[in-house]
Design a protein that fits this description.
- By secondary structure, the protein is α+β, with helices and mostly antiparallel strands.
- The chain is 38% helix and 16% strand.
- It is built from eight helices and nine strands.
- Helix 2 runs antiparallel to helix 5, helix 2 crosses helix 7 and helix 5 runs antiparallel to helix 6.
- The chain is globular and about 65 Å long.
């Protein structure tokens, strides 16, 4: 697991810096009063949507809204903690760490993002509440970063995953036959806003603001598993196990990925069968690409296994996020990220390369 010029994330995080982040925040979020909400909206540059709220929701839509609410809480916690670290000059977040960025402009940008994420969470809560569903309350959160550089790269990575997941939610809203179809535009506006954020995160790292012509797709199952890397176990008022999505076993990437063809070494907390399993990569809007696991590379380790598989970047992978997964089966074309998720055992490996 690396936190230098690149980042690899799995569903497990080996080290966490600082005390867990807890809500509520000083502005009353996630239950602000009218005055507090007005200040959040002012800081966000706009208001909560007053568009249509469905009176009822299909079960699959409820599930993804529970995921989105939890994800927005996590993002609000991350950026609130980042803002505090910057404004209080925590080592690794002081002026030297953020140079050559203009300090005032940076603080304004992160403060705006904090408030926007709070409105995203309140919006998802509102859709659930409007349909008579119980409110989702925030958990406690821990993030595996200790300096500004790593924090911005982590922000880019989980935002990339969100950008890949939201189109899947739009498809569900549009096709499940429920009232959520009227909220497809709302999700589209959130997707575009997250894209603006992601361009900022990339620009801060001196990358091109837009990574690729088509960004990598995802699935709700991958997003749900990845989210749990930042949640303190047992801290959620509504247990995560009640959300009707699978949680995959962690997939750790031990090799520094590069934007070229190479071999990656992985580790998992369990057994690997090179004869019955393979590695699948999801990159851009291309069909998932399956590669074999090297049988000679499979080695036991305490509590699990290590193994190697090719990373064929030049086969048409995109800059930015690539998702890897160990799946059951060694042959056959999987058509999209959801099909990959259905047969995944260890996932997701989140790889950022440029």
């Amino acid at each position: 697991m690396y936190f230098t010029s690149f980042l690899v994330l799995s569903a497990s995080v080996a080290a966490v810096v600082g005390a867990p982040f807890t809500f509520p925040t000083p502005d009353g979020f996630p239950r602000p009063n009218r005055t507090q909400l007005a200040l959040i909206q002012q800081g966000a540059g706009g208001t909560l949507s007053n568009s249509f709220l469905p009176a009822s929701l299909k079960s699959a839509t409820i599930t993804v809204l529970e995921l989105l609410t939890n994800n927005e809480y996590s993002e609000a916690a991350f950026f609130a903690q980042l803002l505090t670290n910057i404004t209080t000059n925590v080592p690794g977040y002081d002026a030297a760490a953020t140079a050559p960025l203009d300090r005032d402009s940076l603080i304004k940008a992160i403060s705006t993002i904090v408030n926007q994420e709070k409105l995203h969470a309140l919006g998802a809560r509102g859709i659930l509440a409007g349909a008579g569903q119980p409110l989702i309350e925030p958990c406690q959160y821990e993030f595996p970063v200790s300096n500004f550089k790593d924090a911005i790269l982590l922000a880019q990575t989980f935002t990339d995953l969100a950008l890949g997941t939201l189109p899947e939610v739009q498809v569900l809203f549009a096709t499940d036959g429920g009232g959520a179809i009227r909220n497809v535009r709302l999700l589209g506006s959130i997707l575009a806003q997250e894209g603006q954020q992601d361009g900022f995160f990339r620009f801060v790292q001196q990358k091109t603001p837009s990574a690729a012509p088509y960004l990598t797709g995802g699935s709700a199952s991958f997003a749900f598993t990845a989210l749990q890397a930042y949640i303190v176990p047992g801290s959620c008022p509504k247990p995560l196990a009640t959300i009707n999505l699978p949680t995959f076993k962690p997939l750790n990437i031990l090799t520094k990925p590069m934007a070229r063809n190479m071999t990656l070494e992985y580790s998992v907390d369990g057994a690997i069968s090179c004869k019955d399993q393979s590695v699948v990569y999801i990159s851009g809007q291309n069909r998932p690409l399956r590669v074999p696991i090297s049988c000679s590379s499979v080695k036991p380790r305490p509590g699990g296994s290590t193994f190697k598989a090719d990373f064929p970047f030049q086969a048409g992978f995109s800059n930015g996020l690539t998702i890897s997964a160990v799946v059951n089966g060694t042959t056959g074309q999987l058509l999209d990220p959801n099909e990959v998720a259905l047969v995944s055992v260890y996932a997701p490996g989140l790889i950022e390369v440029d």
